[in-house]
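Subject: sequence -> structure tokens, single chain

Hey, anyone have a minute? Need the predicted structure for the following. Not urgent.
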Amino acid sequence: QTLTGETPLAFSKTVHKYKTVEQLDILADVYRHDDTVKRPVIVWYHGGALIMGSRSNVPKQLRELAKEHGFILVSFDYRLAPEAKLSEIVEDVRDGLEWVRRSGPGRFHADPSKLGVAGASAGGYLALMSGILIEPAPTAIVSYWGFGDVDGEWTTSPNEAYRKGKLIE
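Reply:
Had a minute. Here:
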């Protein structure tokens, strides 16, 4: 029970299919309180260099924040490289965010006008991409260690100091 004597609402996870590509179902985990209150949404994108990871990699602190402050938390899977090209991964991000806005109010009582997007590493990059993928853009974007440039020289050219073992000169 809470200090006011109320029984706290359960905060549970449901799994949803937000799209299918060929025969592959692409899923989202939705964490929310067990009620019908319209709530703001935090979307989470996992890291993993765009080649690994899954929607189950949600930081415990983020789940606790959503639970404590009454947010819905949606963690998306997306297709991974090298089987999927970057454009297909970005398409999954756009489709997932559009799914939250279109289907979220009916499926899990989302308030699509209050949408924050966050991610770590590759997920941080995808969170940043969300700002140009949907209209209107998310209310907030948080990128933890996200790279802002996937085809910059730093990603495509070897670093001579690193190759020689001289990281600090």
